[in-house]
Amino acid sequence: MANADTDTKNAAKQEQEQEQEQQQLYTSRVVLTTYPSQLGIDPIPLSWGASSAEERGPVVVSRQKDSFGRRNAIGAGGGSYCIYRALAVAIGALTPSHRPDFRLTEPTHSIGPFPAWSDPEKIVSMDPWGHAIVDHFSEQLDQGIDIRPTIAITQAHMKLAEIDDAIDKGILRCDGDVVTKSGELKVVKVASEPVWHLPGVAKRFGINEATLRRALFEDTGGMYPELITRPDLKVFLPPIGGLTVYIFGNPAHIPDPTKRLTMRVHDECNGSDVFGSDICTCKPYLIYSIEECAREAQNGGVGVVVYFRKEGRALGEVTKYLVYNARKRQEGGDTAANYFKRTEFVAGVKDMRFQALMPDILHWLGVKRIDRFISMSNMKYEAIVGSGIEIVERVSIPEERMPADSKVEIEAKIADGYFTSGEVPTEEDLKTTKGRNWDEIAH
Ligand SMILES: [Zn+2]
């Protein structure tokens, strides 16, 4: 009995301590959601697509003390990394009231503003002023409002074994400018986190805003009740990955109609891009496009690679591996004819990248015309052309650069309508194009 008593006492003590700890981090009252008419709720006006940053207003999503009532966006900053920030706060590594010191963080290169920045329909999935909050919203920052950048612009050198190889083979030359004498690529990089203007996103997909809000609420496990209770807040920062832009050559050439532009829009494939898996053509495409972009820059134009964090056609890597297994184990082996079917069996759809929002970044960069588009994706092509950007030439990867096991994917995609400068495979071809079988992979 004595032991049980001590246990109860200890448990009570522990609970009390935990409560105290929580109270040190947060106020005792938990605000599960807010309502437009609630006392103390007074969002900073946000006019999406206004002609200047000042008229548009800053995006404020912070729940910090001085910002909570002035929030004009739903969700959390940092994309998917908001969870790690929460962990840092919970374990005491970060105070919840921490504010970034923005000194010396300003962009290395100036981009824009372009007319699309103040067009409410051209850019709906990022904040066009996200890199310039210190320039435009210093007044609100001084008032204690917690505004965070959602875009950053920097510069770097890239050293890649494949580029060394291309230099050795004479495919690419070291001009001392785009490619340094020691074979490094000079690059300007832009990182962007997602900022969705919900009415614009809904319109892009041809659905109504209420349906979009409900779906986002349900499929995030009810994480953001304000999607439902705050119809007055039109901006949502979703907990998803963002994108990176790699610019080869002068970024000022991108909107210049007298300069040529080579571009690739690449969706993440960690297995191939980083680890060299040979079941698909992702890395060969990426490397080929980097070479072509560098070459365009050396010829006086500019090259751009946009890298989206949409792993495994935005189905994620777990789904992707399940599909790999099913493809290899199915009766008749891994054929191009059944390539998409296996993805649909597991995921319900064959692709969740839905390229409708993708052209936003191109409009942010001031792209008007793409002279060489390094991609075979009909979805990317149609989204870009449909958004008002001209594509002069579509370029697919040279056949000799395709890994043997990736033929299944390539043929299936071409048969499904993807672009090719070569032949479209017949039904019979699709049945006979086979990937490596399971026994050959086993180890
Ligand atoms: Zn891949």
TrEMBL record:
Residues 260-395 form the GTP cyclohydrolase II domain. Residues 29-219 form the GTP cyclohydrolase N-terminal domain. GO terms for molecular function: GTP binding; GTP cyclohydrolase II activity. The keyword Glycoprotein does not apply. InterPro entries: GTP_CH_N, GTP_cyclohydro_II, RibA, RibA-like_sf. Keywords: GTP-binding, Hydrolase, Nucleotide-binding. Residues 1-16 have a biased composition (Basic and acidic residues). This is Uracil-regulated protein 1. It comes from Coemansia asiatica.
